[in-house]
Amino acid sequence: MDYTQAVQFHKAITANGSILGLDSIRALMQELGDIWKELKIVHIAGTNGKGSVCCFLASVFKEAGYRVGQFNSPAVFHPREVYQINGSWISEEEYAECMEEAAAAYDRICSKGMRPPTVFEVETAVAFLWFYRKKCEIVLLETGMGGSTDATNLIQKPLCSVVVSVSMDHMAYLGNSLAEIAKVKAGIIKENCPVVLAGQQEEAEAVLVKRAEELHAPCFFAEEFMDCRMINGILHCCHPEFGMLKVAMQGIYQAKNLAAAVRTIQVLKRSGYMISKEQVQKGIASARWPGRFACICKSPLFYIDGAHNADGAEKLRESLLAYFPKKRRIGIMGVMADKPYREMLKSLLPLFEKIYTVTPENKRAMPAELLAEEIRMQGGSFVIADTVSEAVRSASKEAERLGEDGMVMAFGSLYYLGEVERAMLEA
Q1: I need a labelling partner for 17 at 20 to 30 A (CA). Which of 11, 37, 144, 353 fits?
Q2: How many degrees, rounded to 5, is the angle at CA 166 between CA 160 and CA 170?
Q3: Residue 194: CA atoms inside 13 Å, Cβ hemisphere, count?
Q4: How far apart are CA 184 and CA 257, in angstroms?
């Protein structure tokens, strides 16, 4: 199997859909020798912030000299970006090799009459194969959806479980209340294994703490920074052990993600990982995470953010007001139909002079026309764009006419942000 064939196989099995549960991934990994058992894993779940916390941790561990594997989803810009070691993507050759081995195991499972593994289960298997072959000293493993029934949750003894902010999302799969969703996320907490909890709403925290107590899992809370300020567009957070931490990643919400990452570092130091104050500072300062309140063009000013649920929209609102309080904002929005787009618009619509609506290339996508109708009902101004490229071109021209006062903010589903960036590069 070469790289093109590997990509074709990956595309073909997306038709298997999303099915939660552990039987299939267990069977798949058994076919591959259960090599995941040889890996030292930090398991990360939650609604918003998983990728940023992974990014902070990966950057710090790399700075400390460790070989660190990182598995995140979904892919935003390229299918290989979800697999990284020390910040570098898996190569095409290694991707093809691991996918070929996973595909052979996939075929063996199907020949036994078992359910075909989902694309995410195969992706998870590829991640384990690559990290095992490359002898990673620590692996940062992000859940795909939920926790207890997520394919990544076959692991039994993580170095640490981390639960970032839990909010309402994927209700069709995870539950219709915050407590129900938190119960699913709490599934990554394992007996006698430490857990770090980021700042949570009271209802969610009660569920997570109860689960930790039942499993005798030592529980560590990520404490908010007492001294956190913006200086020349850089977030500065003062920590009692690690001193002043400078966060290059923009977004006011990164302070809470950083708090979770720093608490996790403290827990892992107790497990024997050697990390100095200076390494923490350098690692945090060099951490980058694309697609999260990220600038992709300075003239006109153009940002993208994967705010795809109500909590994400509120965090985006806070960041826009903190970083660009006086800008005249032109928006581009594309979401999945199962997302709370009405609540998202209630938070964000007042900040925009106009929003271009687009239809992401996904079978779950909300049609641009229906999204525009909701904007109309909420009293906003909109333009229905036939394509993402058209929206990018038109919004950019409007921002250019506004001069230094104007900016473009593309937000919503992570699935279309890569198309936004490509369209901006071609414009």
Answers
A1: 37
A2: 115
A3: 17
A4: 21
Sheet order of strands, 138-142 included: 88-89, 83-85, 68-71, 138-142, 41-45, 160-163, 195-197, 219-221
**How many Å apart are CA 221 and CA 256, to the nearest integer?**
11
Kindly list the distances between the CA atom of residue 371 and the CA atoms of 72, 365, 375, 404, 415, in Å, as whole numbers in the listed order.
28, 10, 6, 29, 16
| Count of CB atoms situated within 10 Å of the CB of 310 | 21
> Helices in 112-193 by DSSP H: which ranges?
119-133, 171-174, 178-185
Length of the chain: 427
Q: Which residues contact 35 (CB under 8 A, 6 or more apart)?
A: 29, 128, 129, 132
Q: Is the Cβ–Cβ distance between 420 and 409 less than 8 Å?
A: no
Angstrom distance (rounded) from CA 96 to CA 80? 11
- Measured at the CA of 210, the angle between CA 204 and CA 213, to 5 degrees, comes to 140
Determine the angle formed by the axes of helices 368-377 and 341-348, rounding to 10 degrees: 50
pTM for the predicted model, two decimal places? 0.87
Task: Give, for all 427 residues of the chain, the pLDDT tens digit.
Answer: 999 999 999 999 988 888 888 999 999 999 999 999 999 999 999 888 899 999 999 999 999 999 999 999 877 778 899 999 999 999 999 999 999 999 999 999 999 999 999 999 999 999 999 999 999 999 999 998 888 899 999 999 999 999 998 876 655 556 678 888 899 999 999 999 999 999 888 888 999 999 999 999 999 999 888 888 888 878 899 999 999 999 988 888 889 999 999 999 999 999 899 999 999 999 999 998 877 888 999 999 999 998 888 888 998 999 999 899 999 999 999 999 988 899 999 999 999 999 999 999 888 899 999 999 999 999 999 999 999 999 999 999 999 999 999 999 999 988 889 889 889 887 6
